[in-house]
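call fold target=Family 78 glycoside hydrolase catalytic domain
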Amino acid sequence: MMTYSFVNDTQTKFQVIDEGQFRADPSLLAVAQEQLPLATRQVTPQRVAVIQADVSLAEQNVTWRTNLDAVTLQPGERLVYDLGTVVVGHFEVAIESCGSPMDAPLLLQARFAERLLEVDLDASKVESWLPLAWIQDDRRHVELLPATVTYERRYSCRYVVLTPVGQSLKWCPRLTRPEFTATSAVGERPVAPLTGGPAWLRRLDAVCIATLRNTMQAVYEDGTKRDRRLWLLDFRMQAKVNYVTFKDRTLARRCLYLFASFADDAGRLPADVFTRFETPQADDLYWFDYQLQFVMALAEYGVATGDLVTVRALEPIASRAMTLACSQLSADGLMGARTDVFVDWSTDCDKQTAVQALLVQAVRAWQQIAQLVDKPALGTTATDWLETVVGASLVQTYDAEQHLFVSGPKREVSLLTQVYMLLADVLPVPERQRCLAAMRARFELTTALVTPSTQGLLAEVLFKYGETDAALAVLKAYWGPQLAQGATTCAEVFAPADPDYSPYGSPLLNSYCFGWGSYPAYLLRVNWRALGARFPSD
């Protein structure tokens, strides 16, 4: 096997790093595989519509009704169930025939859609570098009716579209008792809502919590439609939201153990883990910056939960990862250019300084882990490295004349670089505000960065440095249009000016319930007391 890195701006997307692979540590994996049963709940559609099969929704006068009694479909018609919100799980519906005896089987086409805009898209015309098997379509024969049609595959959807294909002219299918069995690791566990403040912020918080609830399955899934796997960056952001909402530690502990199970002898960790197999498997994908995310996630878990048993068990994994990272520094304390990094989807800017900033944050987290497990010598080592990387960051990446951070050989100035370095806290206190002012003067902060991961971090920087109004404007510019469009969960990627935007060739491959989109719930809850003093009740 080979280990790969992903490069978005190349045709092949994946590049070979080396011949290594990630093998499981049986003892750590055994802990990760302890049983965590999912909670289930039954969801009945809130409304139903019968529409013409060969005419788009936009061209029809759609009449929704809340009466879910038996619906008979005439030839050329299709049915749309609206579950009211995006849920994750399994669907079933009872079908009987009416009219003449069945002279042929029922050929039933189903589409499971998270957004209404997906209903009319033609899957046969989608071209993408992603596997098209992620498209949530099903086509099956039902030989005899009556029957209960149960969809074995798990779906993430709000809308269920059922279309008889090539229907007989002598009899019609009649559909009754639609039911969706939704799953989540936290079930219907309540989260106290925010009080006071603008209604749109409370609505955003609720939508973020719904997103997180759906993505908390056997692991913290990145997206519930796609990829349905455990990614390190996504997990860290989701776990931080969880610590201030559901306050569940069991699932986060499992995810930490899963990543630790596949650390190699050099100290590398996989970027993601597949958990739908009987035995979890690490992807053969490695990103250096994701390795750093593990260290930060472990420190945050320890602080949030107080579970020092887990922190002590996994500290050697984190320390090995950090020893490897620090061994790759140049003589002047910089990480330098790398191709095995992700940071963000954007390929329009140099990421070298952003990676340096993540290294600073990771070394600081390593220092915190040493304190949690009471290892003074380890803490001294981390402190020494912290002085090295912070000093190098100031000398090599900060332009004191511009009051901005630069990146790469061309000394590029980008918003991404400023966000990550300001989160890293490398500047002296007086200079932080000057850098923040220069950033705000140079960049239009409410122009969306497309991915909610970086958009959320931008808002975090602004909250961190007291720019509350600007932080709220950033949240509103990105998440506000989603709420206005009726979103009940947060999207993986979103362009306010282009609701149909997809980096994958079609919205059918976008995930509209994606873990890192829930990050505003964390930001709002850790800042709400300060915000509450500024908000009138409504």
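return ok
The chain has a mean pLDDT of 94. The chain is about 35% helix and 20% strand.
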